[in-house]
Amino acid sequence: MKTLLDIENLQTLLHTGKAPVRAVDGLTLKISQGETFALLGESGCGKSMTALSIMRLLPDAGETVAGQIKIDGTDVLQLPETEMRKIRGKRISMIFQEPMLSLNPVMTIAEQIDEVLTQHLNLPRQAAQLRIQELLEQVGIPDAPRRMHEYPFQFSGGMKQRAMIAMALAGEPELLIADEPTTALDVTIQAQVLDLMRQIQQRKNMAILLITHDLGVVAEMAQRVAVMYAGEIVELATRDDFFNQPAHPYSQQLFASLPGKQKRDQALAVINGNVPPLSQQFAGCRFVDRCNQALALCHDTIPEWHPVSGQHQVRCHLYNKDSVHVSSNPMIDSSTRNAANIAQTAPASTTSLLLQVTGLKVHFPIRKGLFKRVAGHVKAVDGVSLKIAAGKTLALVGESGCGKTTIGKSILQLIQPTAGSVRFNDQELVVLGRSQLRQIRSQFQIIFQDPYSSLNPRMRITEILQEGMNALHVGKINHTDANNQSPAPSREKEIDALLQRVGLPADVKWRFPHEFSGGQRQRIAIARALAVNPKLLICDEPTSALDVSVQAQILNLLKSLQNNLGLAFLFITHNIAVVEYLADEVAVMYLGRIVEHGHIDEVIGCPKHPYTQALLSSVPQIQSDPDRQIIHLKGDLPSPASPPAGCHFHPRCPKAMPICRESYPPVSAFSTTHTAHCFLYPQEQGSENYEH
Amino acid sequence: MPFSPIILWTDALIYLFVAIVLIFIGYVRHHEHLLTPWKRVGHSASGMSALTILIFFLVIGLLDTVHFRPILEHKTNDGEKIYSVEVLSLLDIVVTPLRTHVEKTYSAPLASHLYAKETIELPDGKQVRAFARLEYGGAHLQNPETEHIGDIIWRGATGLAYGLLIWGIVVACLCMLLARRNQQSVLHNLSDVWRRTTEIPWYAILITLLILLMLIGCVSTLATHYHVLGTDKVGQDILYQSLKSIRVALVIGTLTTLIMLPFALLLGIMAGYFSGWIDDVIQYIYTTLNSIPSVLLIAAAVLMMQVYIETHPEIFETIASRADLRLLFLCIILGITSWTGLCRLLRGETMKLRELEYIQAAHAFGVSHWRIISRHILPNVMHIVLIATVMDFSGLVLAEAVLSYVGVGVDPSTISFGTMINAARLEMAREPMVWWALMAAFGFMFTLVLSANLFADAVQNALDPRTRILKQRNSFFHRPAKQAAIPLNKTPETTTPSGSSQNP
Lengths: 692, 504
Description:
The structure holds two protein chains of two kinds.
Chain A: E1 3-14, E2 21-32, E3 36-40, H1 47-55, E4 62-71, E5 74-75, H2 81-87, E6 92-95, H3 99-102, H4 109-120, H5 125-138, H6 144-147, H7 157-169, E7 175-179, H8 187-204, E8 207-212, H9 215-221, E9 224-229, E10 232-238, H10 239-244, H11 249-256, H12 296-300, E11 306-309, E12 312-314, H13 331-338, E13 353-368, E14 373-389, E15 393-397, H14 404-411, E16 419-424, E17 427-428, H15 434-440, E18 444-447, H16 461-472, H17 489-501, H18 518-530, E19 536-540, H19 548-565, E20 568-573, H20 576-582, E21 585-590, E22 593-599, H21 600-605, H22 610-618, E23 667-669, E24 675-677
Parallel strand pairs in A: 3-8, 3-9, 6-7, 7-8, 15-20, 15-21, 18-19, 19-20
Antiparallel strand pairs in A: 1-2, 1-4, 4-5, 9-10, 10-12, 11-12, 13-14, 13-16, 16-17, 21-22, 22-24, 23-24
Chain B: E1 3-6, H1 9-29, H2 32-42, H3 45-63, E2 67-75, E3 81-83, E4 88-89, H4 90-94, H5 96-100, E5 113-121, E6 127-133, H6 144-182, H7 186-194, H8 202-223, H9 238-274, H10 276-291, H11 294-311, H12 319-354, H13 357-364, H14 369-406, H15 417-424, H16 436-463, H17 465-477, H18 482-485
Antiparallel strand pairs in B: 1-2, 2-3, 2-4, 5-6
Helix pairs in contact in B: 1-9, 2-16, 3-8, 3-9, 3-16, 6-7, 6-8, 9-10, 9-12, 9-14, 9-16, 10-12, 11-12, 12-14, 13-14, 14-15, 14-16, 15-16, 16-17
């Protein structure tokens, strides 16, 4: 097949800080026409910088200092800017990660696409309008002639990403660069967008450079895969070779650190440390410090490319024919062996009910007009009931905007529930005042999603950890008086012990949060919650902002804490793999209500509700399964301000019946633990009813 | 005691302000995370040069703040000491010649004769209309027509030489200090400063200082025998007036901030943090206050104050204390009318912070509202407060000038830039024009406000994270390309592409 894009020894510098950062350091790759090439790697490995270098859209601090980027034989780095404009959008197009930020909010979708058309095709007005309509229809936007004149805010997240794709396709490019195109989207929407990209590619025979950190997306989309680490490509393979037999220790360790159902009873393999700073000169292999198969040679000799088989190449000394042959995946075996230390010692005696939520409702009023009349309610949480036993994990799964986080916050009484009851250890929380609540606040704590905004940048770690202890008067061993402001020696020791428990050295307590990486910050946030000895920890997507290898560290930590301290978790997430790995029970939420609830094996193994089935089938799988059929949901999550009548899911449900439009389905039980709200199954008599 | 100290209201507040600034500096020095951005201020050449000039103004202002009443020669019948009703300051003592050398009327800068002709009676009884000799300016000259220029040049040159000498001493002291701190030789440090390799831009600071010291030397040698900036209608030295105006400008610039801050901080953070009806009430208050023309409000308040002062002359011991109270009142009313802008900024920032997860976490720990405000929110909005106050300073100095010009500013007996401009305004229409009073006020105020603005810029660049990133990027963009090329020529055969980083 003809080579379309040919990158030769690309070097891109970023001039930040004292020494220039070598974001891309000697990258060489070839993409043929009509193929999907995936560039895989953790954050900070230079994936996006590669894409921006190809488009020559680097930030001011960036500079391409060496290399060639040839598209059909023309070196784009040698072109003047005016020529480059004719290439951007016409021959190479790009889709960005954040659809909300990539569209201009004050221009209609049609105007924005028209910009591309006038730049590259110079169509007459009438033809241009027809072309825009055609493009939008191509990407599956319903009612395109009308919607093309709408503004971005009238589009939902998935629609915006579709519009972005339409814009990228407007110039009929030969190469489409997709930089994490689905990271900001929900799984069901992700499935739609990926499917769309596949269809378009087949139709137009266009090459796609897919940049992602998600192994699942790579497995579904790519034909060839390049693994990028610390600015260079370390492994190059076809998809099947890569997923069947990853060669580089980094790829192997990445696979081992993925959570999943089959790894439930063991600790995840962890890649220690972080990506090394790219401002240094590397003398040996860049991965040597984190590698579990490192040889003495790796420290002082830069590895060359070694063939594994056919097109499969790897930059690792282990595959040098002259040196000792090492079995290609010893990693996974060793990880299983290492994992024996965290055996599942589930405390069977503590099955007492810790948290019971019944009929919880959180409605936010929508106010309108001069006198701020209440014009309606956003029903963020609309009658949710949950139970968590001590020492167990309940996972709350759902798409963004379905009210998961609101549930977490209203259990903590950070948001006042509109109705319902939250009983913790048989004590009703909803009726308690602020000062009464404070006395039992130490029993339940929360860990947030974003480790960057969950720590006050102006407080030292020790102050952050002490805050909760001081406010709740816990851990006063030697404090007889009320004066617990000054840290007594025992308090110091407690903090050291806390940091040790979350795997940080004790001397970090004098530092400030900005000195830590994302994973370390998340550990500090966990330590802060543990400082007050809680029994229940609400984890609000604690790993979704982290890389896979760091996610494994945090999940291991949470699991060992549960085993050692008997903590109960309410684990709020949209990541099914994490749920399979960690949860005992699962509750699936859709638009403020729980649609299916049950034991992990029941829900994941045998999903009953059509939404759960669709959700599970949309998750990109690494193991290619010929029987697997993705259930595509139409459209997006409706607004919780005006949920559809009847079953909330019926407008998107592939199995909708007339009755679904009329009333909300009551509960159907499949076993003592497994329940769902769906008319497809026989109903229980006298079950709770939702009124509208 | 040969004097009786007097602490006027504004003096007390200035001392308080200085104490707050000193405590803040001490606090910052002990907190690494606060110190780092301020060190960045120290690395900005323009900011530090501006600070050098600001410090000069501050020293003059502080000298002018130490007030006292000197003792009089005679005693009362009971043998008690009598203190003068005139309140003097340390600055008045330092520049006594300027204060006491009062001419009859206008004289041009450095002149030896009056600016207007008058009838002079000669010893022989004849009368001539001529430019009379000044009483003090150039009085030592035997023959002004021939000696005048030479004398000025000679004195000016000696002044410059003195300035240079003092500067030399300062440089030597500085290098010795640096040498001691860095454990290196004095010469090594000197060459470091000269080659601009030091972290703090001593080079720029020293050049500013050289210009400043030479100017001061030149002016001070000339000022003993001439009126360097001329005299006004009643023969008072303009230089003296300009120096006295500095304190008023500083008082207005700093005290107003001091008065405005509690309002802005408390109300702004409360509105943002509690929201709901508290937010509504506070918003209504500042929207209402904002919609009243502030000049009208200030005029009304100042006129009320004036009436009060005039009907109660007995409560004021001296003229100075009367003028001072009016100045203080002007500060208060300016403060009350100007807190709304900062309040609005703080409200927005607090609303943003309130939703952040570390505040949510603090709520989950049951931390009290006031503790959240003081430990989490206040430190995180402090950079906005600092930037806003430093930026406001120059605006307030200019506001005083405008208000005094309109006639609702400071007491007419107080010397300020506003009153100087007000007095000079009619003279602009004279033929020949009297330009020096206005020029002096303009020059001093311009220097003060410009250096305050430059310093504020440096502070903003250092403290505001967003502008910091922008500035870094720009400076790197202009960096010479050879630096980047050094470590990367592993493959010399590949051609280095040109212009690879363009804006989209």
